[in-house]
Design goal:
By secondary structure, the chain is mainly α. The protein has a two-stranded antiparallel sheet. A hairpin with a 2-residue loop joins β1 and β2. The protein is elongated and about 60 Å long.
Amino acid sequence: MKIEEALKEASLRLSSLCQNPSRVAKILLMNYLDVSIEWIFLNQKNEFDESGYFALVKRFENCEPLEYITGKAGFYGLEFEVESGVLIPRPETEILVDKVLEIASSYKVPKIAEIGTGSGV
């Protein structure tokens, strides 16, 4: 199967599960092939063994978080390794961190402890 065909099929399968199925399909393919998004765009006509790719798509269809499938989660512009059982850093937590930094800046030597609130990121 060609890369462009696989992406179309995956996007169709994921269309009812997320807001941007094309993006998720590409992320899963980048993870499966261990390539960049640029590589995917430049190699749309290439054939590849799609069985492992659609196994990843199936995991997403079974409601497994994308971060657990790829083993990566972004937080505050950084990328962290995650696995099943680790709480995935949420975008809303970045707002909380910003607020803590704002409040802490008014103290000479702030003391802050994050205990039992997630992945530790």
